[in-house]
Amino acid sequence: MASAETAAEHERILREIESTDTNCIGPTLRSVYDGQEHGLFMDKLEGRIRNHDREIEKMCNHHFQGFVDSITELLKVRGEAQKLKVQKEEMRCRLQQRNIATTIDKLTHCLPGTNIILCILIQYYPALRTLEQLEESCLPQAGSYRFCTIMAENIPLLRTHIRDVSMSDLKDFLESIRKHSDKIGETAMKQFTLLGNIHSRICAAQHLHTYTSYTSVNKLTNNKMTINKNIWERRLGNESSQIVFRMCICFTQGARDTFENYYRKQRRKQARLVLQPHSNMHETLEGYRHYFNQIVGFFVVEDHILHTTQGLVNRAYVEELWELALSKTIAALRTHSSYCTDPDLILDLKNLIVLFADTLQGYGFPVNQLFDMLLEMRDQYGEILLKKWNQSFRQILDQDNYSPIPVASPEEYQRIACQFPFQDPELDKIPFPKKLPFSEFVPKVYSQLKEFIYACLKYSEDLHLSSTEIDDMIRKSTNLLLTRTLSHCLQYAIKKKNVGLAELVQIIINTTHLEQSCHYLEEFISNITNVPPDTINATKLYGTSTFKDARHAAEEEIYTNLNQKIDQFLQLADYDWTAAQGGAQASDYLSDLIAFLCSTFAVFTHLPGKVAQTACMSACKHLSTSLLQLLLEADVRQVSMGALQQFNVDVKECERFARAGPVPGFQGDTLLLAFIDLRQLLDLFTQWDWSTYLADYGRPTCKYLRVNPHTALALLEKMKDTSRKNNMFAQFRKNERDKQKLIDTVVKQLRNLIATNQA
């Protein structure tokens, strides 16, 4: 009975656990721990959990296929949604295009009605026709009455009055178009910008080529012409058309020359004012914009007068004005743009000039000279870019630590790989952290090269150039950046004061990697211009030669730097040239010098083998030459045999250094050849083997082939003076006398040998 009650109690508790909120389950669990048969309850709880797990598994199995099907359908919907998005964009662009065409059509249908209204508003034409009828038919038929005479006399006065009123209206009209010229030009250029943007969006929706052809621009201007006819009405109103019409009426009444001459004279004056730029126009883009708006507005008015009147202006007059305006505009732009030092302002100005030229071209004005001027400005833009990038390169080189880049994780490695195309299978095998062989300035310089190419590409857009011309322009500009700007900056980094050997070594490594990346730059330019790099007559980049020259300069600087360090150590040399006996160990200064060379050449392990070998051979040759000069310098007047023995010990230390092979790659005792001149000279003196030297001199197999008789004579003279000084009080000793005689004999023979060779 108790077992049944316990089981019922446990069942009740389990139902409460299943149905009760987790926040209120505390009392239920407490009753479990307070009651009996705690283990039995845990068994039932685990059984209940297993039942629920089986039910969950059955439900998941039942719905799994539906879940997979839903995911598949969702992926299909995503693709269809993308297609729908593209179709909606195309529909929106076509709708805008259709709206523009509808607007043009409606405006075209309104023009006849507008002309009728204008004709209705004309008041002077019936009056002039009535006066003409009165003068030619009515008055002659009426007879010779006094009132007829008075009327005939007043007819010229009425005509003059009408002409005066028309002239006054003409003056008001000229003043009005002068005031509104800026707004007319601004409206015309805005309309062209709007049409150009819509055209570009249509091309993008249809996946057209980035660079639209010149034919597309012409089609665009045909639509723009119809819309811009309304600028006249919106800015000047219908009254201006009435004034122009009344002037045409006056032409028929014998005042043609008066109105024509006056109009053209005043418009020429206005043209001179419009074409005169402000002195500070070059300071802001708005100054150029105002200048262009006035010019465009002026010629929009002239084009409208040309096409709506007969006789006031003609094509020859308008073309003459445009030639004058074109020459003055180009001269002004050349002058003011030359003051600009900001590449962004030059780029904005170029875009503004393109809009100015395309707008006027839509009215039939030739603008080829403007595009020719833009090509001239391209050179100025390039020079400004070079100056800007010169500062960028200098800053990068000055801030670089000239140490290999440490990479702690694959993310850091990938970040650098995105900036600079670097591949090294051996380095990839090394676990993180590791170091890249080059320093930070390599990816930074490469990124700056790409930014420069992008800047050149921006200027070439919309200049009606072919892809090949754009590619050629970018490559030539990039070559200037490489051969002039970057090359000079690298030379500056190499030649600046306090540059160490470690920095020079890193520069050689960096330029080697930049040289290897040049073909990636070639591919980058080809990708953005769509011109294959193997195109005939395509300009090749000079990056390889630029980085190679910089590397050679760094190598030469290493040789020079090493030699300077050697000279600094040699300045510490303190030989006792009159010592009676030499020491058994090398001089301190030379030991320090050898230690410095060993540590230095250990750093050269990352350099190309030939560079390290050349540096080592150059240092040894310079050391050998400097030691010989130290021995023969004029300040050293006397040299004893003991001093010569100490000097010989130092040279042997140099030979041990060369024999140890501080840089791998030398065959045999090749490096020892740097000290062979010193070795033969010292052997000749320490062994006193003059008979062999004098007997074999000049023969290819001579033991002392590298000993120059002038050098031997100079050193022997120093030893001769030492012998005389030391033997001043022992001149009667037979051995000393014999030694002195021997030296004198050798000196005499050397002089004869030298004289014979000179003869």
Automatic annotation (TrEMBL):
**Which taxonomic lineage does the organism of this UniProt entry have?**
Eukaryota, Metazoa, Chordata, Craniata, Vertebrata
Coiled-coil regions listed in the entry: 42-94
Is Coiled coil a UniProt keyword of this protein? yes
**Role:** Component of the exocyst complex involved in the docking of exocytic vesicles with fusion sites on the plasma membrane.
The protein's name = Exocyst complex component
Q: Which family does it belong to?
A: Belongs to the SEC15 family.
Q: Looking at the keywords, is Metal-binding present?
A: no
Signal sequence, renumbered to the chain: none
List, alphabetically, the InterPro entries matched: EXOC6/Sec15, EXOC6/Sec15_C, EXOC6/Sec15_C_dom1, EXOC6_Sec15_N, EXOC6PINT-1/Sec15/Tip20_C_dom2
What positions does the domain Exocyst complex component EXOC6/Sec15 N-terminal occupy? 92-189
* Gene3D superfamilies linked: Dsl1p vesicle tethering complex, Tip20p subunit, domain D, Exocyst complex subunit Sec15 C-terminal domain, N-terminal subdomain
Provide the alphabetized UniProt keywords. Answer: Coiled coil, Exocytosis, Transport
This entry carries the following GO cellular component terms, namely: exocyst; plasma membrane
A GO BP term, please? vesicle tethering involved in exocytosis
Q: Which organism is it from?
A: Cyprinus carpio
Q: What is the primary gene name for this protein?
A: LOC109093705
Domain Exocyst complex subunit EXOC6/Sec15 C-terminal residues, every copy: 369-718
Q: Which Pfam families match?
A: EXOC6_Sec15_N, Sec15_C
